[in-house]
Design brief:
heterodimer, A: 129 residues, mainly alpha, 5 helices, 0% strand, B: 207 residues, alpha+beta, 4-stranded antiparallel β-sheet, 8 helices
Chain lengths: 129, 207
């Protein structure tokens, strides 16, 4: 009987963890996406992109334990590209990288959320975006 | 390389603990649910070892979920014979009282050759030596000769198996008479032979 009680507890904890993890990731990504969309696509906004990157890295500590390292590396890569383009004063590259980053974050949001998209459909690798 | 090594160590101990937690029956004869659990757990565990980009939690969470659900379903199956029949199926007579049930062979897609192999594996040379031959829910074939009496489970953990009761040609009145003052809920196991000889084990207190 003890085993059954422990099983019920484990099942409850697992479901709770999955739900919390999903909510935390979705909320964190929503916040980052909102910030990113609000930053102008110009190299003058370098500081703001740097701050958005710092916020993302802080949030990543919480959801990094369940998201594929490939996905996280791709998102970090896009941030580096934006900041690099801003430093170089290349607005065109910055806008392209920003859109790719928004696409990657949207994909991750869809992947981690509790919805039919993430459960039923093929999970497109971010490398294809 | 070090991450794969440590992941393997963690997965090994997690799996060892999970198998120990599920109990000894998982390493013996597997029923359908147990086979699915074993296959899924081994498959899920191999993913983060093969691919270092997949977080370890992607194996830990499914393993914990699968193992706990398997234990809960096993527990519920013991509580409800109906659920047990739905999940595991029920034993099927291939030979009943010496008569071969051809439809049972056909429905379970067992060829005559496979059936005879199973008989030989049970030490039977001639089909007319067999009184009962039963296809068990775990896929094994049990063979009983004419000199072996077959007991039917009438009560299992307080729950009456009406199918078995009727198969023997008895009814609830007969059961109540056999139980006497004892209520079915207080019986852990009651079996009966075709001649009505019963064997009753009461439920132990505090288990």
């Amino acid at each position: 009987m003890k085993t059954v009680i422990v099983s019920y507890i484990i099942l409850g904890v697992v479901i709770l963890l999955v739900v919390i993890n999903s909510i935390v990731i979705s909320n964190s990504i929503d916040t980052i996406l909102e910030k990113l969309r609000g930053i102008p696509g110009a190299s003058s906004a370098k500081e703001e992109y740097q701050r958005a990157f710092d916020d993302y890295m802080a949030a990543q500590r919480f959801f990094g334990i369940t998201v594929s390292h490939d996905d996280l590396t791709n998102i970090e890569g896009e941030f580096y590209e934006i900041i690099g383009a801003a430093e170089a004063g290349d607005d065109e590259s910055l806008i392209i990288a920003k859109n790719r980053l928004i696409g990657a974050l949207t994909h991750l949001r869809r992947l981690c959320g509790i919805n039919a998209d993430s459960i039923l459909y093929k999970n497109i690798n971010l490398i294809d975006l | 390389m070090s991450s794969i090594f440590f992941r393997t160590v963690i997965i090994f101990f997690l799996l060892s603990a999970a198998m120990k937690f599920m109990g000894k029956r998982e390493i013996g004869e597997l029923e359908v649910g147990e086979l699915i659990t074993t296959l899924l757990v081994s498959e899920v565990c191999s993913i983060p070892i093969d691919d270092p980009d997949i977080p370890l939690m992607n194996a830990v969470i499914p393993v914990l979920f699968i193992v706990s659900v398997e234990i809960i379903i096993s527990h519920l199956k013991n509580k409800s014979q109906k659920l047990k029949r739905i999940v595991d199926g029920r034993p099927t007579f291939i030979i009943k009282n010496g008569k071969l049930e051809q439809s049972a062979l056909r429905n379970n897609r067992i060829s005559v050759e496979e059936f005879f192999t199973a008989l030989r594996q049970n030490g039977i040379g001639k089909i007319n030596e067999v009184q009962h031959c039963i296809l068990e829910p775990n896929g094994k074939i049990s063979v009983l000769r004419y000199d072996t009496e077959l007991s039917y489970i009438i009560i299992s953990d307080g729950e009456i198996n009406l199918n078995n009761l009727r198969s023997l040609g008895f009814d609830e009145k007969w059961l109540l008479k056999k139980l006497g003052n004892l209520s079915a809920e207080k019986v852990f196991m009651m079996t009966s032979n075709a001649d009505g000889t019963v064997y009753i084990i009461r439920k132990e207190e505090n288990i």
